[in-house]
Write a structure and sequence with these properties.
By secondary structure, the chain is of the alpha/beta class. The chain is built from ten helices and nine strands. Helix 2 (about 75-90) packs across helix 3 (about 100-110) and helix 4 packs antiparallel against helix 5.
Length: about 290
Amino acid sequence: MTTHMLETAQVDIAYDVHGLLPAEGRPPLFMIAQPMDASGFGALASYFPDRTVVTYDPRGLGRSIRKDGRVDHSPTVQADDVHAVIAALGVGPVEMFASSGGAVTALALVAAYPNDVTTLVAHEPPLIPVLPDAAAAERARAGVREAYEAKGSGAGMAAFIAMTSWQGEFTDDYFAQPAADPALFGMPAEDDGSRDDPLLSDRSWAVSSYRPDVAALAAAPTRVVIAVGEESQGTFTGRTSVAAAALLGQQVTVFPSHHGGFLGGEFGYAGQPEAFARTLREVLDGNN
């Protein structure tokens, strides 16, 4: 693996290349997420020893240093950053696996730069506008931020888990629940004083508020596959995945495990990375 720093006027973007450039046989496989950085792709990348894999840290996260004076996370801005990294690779279009907020960035990338990606596998993009209960989902999202602002990261993460594990639409029953208890999830209730978490604050609301440009995606030469974890179906990101696939006129493609199904335990939330990688390989090969 080699690590590179792409310096621009607004940000210094750190990215890693696992393998050779130019890639042999197939284009590089670019893996992106948000707010997770490149450190979360170690397990998944290890199951592609025959491929050149590229990972990166999104603007302002991990090793990528912002110089634009902002703290918000925008999928269109991040799409520009990913485009810049692809250009810096100098090997033409890539294949891409993108998860969570990274999947939203990837959809914005294909819409803006349709010749950058040959195949995109967008795994569980959290797109509130595609939901029939979008207004209620926005209210649930606001509840996470309110818990975080009031009591800190433990309370905020407990509220986030309660939101993202809720089955079905956000009904009155959801909002009538008592506040989620951090102790039930093994998290401390003490307030550490931080209020800058990109997941729990409103800094990434532009990601979950993004509305895909369906016309641009349909016009792009990119093969776009919307994916969902088998354990996520019915939850918030499971429902956004199904709805996004329907917008694009396709059935959602089911992957093993959950929202972090490609993780090997790096963050205490292990999935099934070997089975996940096998399915990803089949989808990239056009066999699924």
